[in-house]
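User: Before I run my own analysis I want an independent prediction to cross-check against. Here's the chain; please return only the structure tokens and, at the end, one sentence I can use as a sanity check.
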Amino acid sequence: MKLYEHEAVELFRRFGIPVPQSVVASSPEEAKRAVEQLGGAGVLKSQVLVGGRGKAGGIRVVSSTEEAETVAKELLSMTIRGERVRRLLVAERVNIARELYLSFTIDRSNWGHVMLASSMGGVDIEEIAARHPDKVLRVAIDPLVGVRDYHLRKVAAFLEIPNELMNDVVVTVRGLYSLYSELGCELAEINPLALTQDNRLLALDAKVIIDDNLARVKGLSLERERDLEEAAREMGFSYVELDGNIGVICNGAGLTMATMDLVKHYGGRPANFLDIGGGADARRVESAVNLLLSKGSVKVVFVNVLGGITRCDEVANGLVKSLRGSRRNVKLVVRLVGTREEEGQRILRENGYEYYRSMEEAARRVVELAKEA
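Assistant: Structure tokens:
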């Protein structure tokens, strides 16, 4: 479960992590009043659950209440990677001396946790690790022991934080780890962690992803809309949200994983993992497609089904019905093999949809269509 930034900021405050002053705004008028409260200047940050909002123009600095109202109107009319901007986090402007990075996440290879730190904040940690591996500190954290004093000294030295701010390091690192461990998080991240010109350590951005199976958040008002993962669970699907533009629907976890790998191999970006399971009928297939079509970033739907107890004609009927009833012009590529495949292919052919018997050919075609879109 991904949290909006303003929700993560509320958690940061709860765990004592220093953050700038901020106010949530849902209208240009509210944004104007918020900037006035913050002294006449601020940063307007679009509240969406997708990445890349800064590059998409979803974060803007304003220098007056009038500018705040104008910019807020623009931001609240935006759609970023398929997600409509409905709220803004209006935060105080901070004079930054250096931008750092700090996070805790799961280290599956060592059955534990890992603290990541970098002197190159404001950039995705994957990009930093790929281009500047020497700029990333990895500290294994034993969940039975937690964060120790030597961990704090190590990260402070690596980030070259002045000795007089050691107490801020203790508060920030211990607070972030407490949040991460107590709430059952998959990720708790500060990017950037700012060393300010007036010698403070502030978390300028908050990212929290909580394991749905371990969620322990109490007393936090989550205002987010019901996400697709929650909707998929209610439908009985195995679904994982990703950030690509190619929707993937398969029957079977192994086949779904292989299909996603093949899409990546040919240069595409899967938008999701969606396993409809065995024996899916037309109604279940229709529900799966409708679910994906509700995700604005999906430009092409790739259906890869091996029909055993799942009948290919049922799959085809579900696909046709869902796309006929949709207002979105989304391309469909189908690889359909197995029980009643001739009938399924006939249904698709008569309705003008592409189908393949080769998984590789289908994957290449779907990547081509996604790039064109």
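Sanity check: The chain has three domains: 21-91, 96-210, 228-372.
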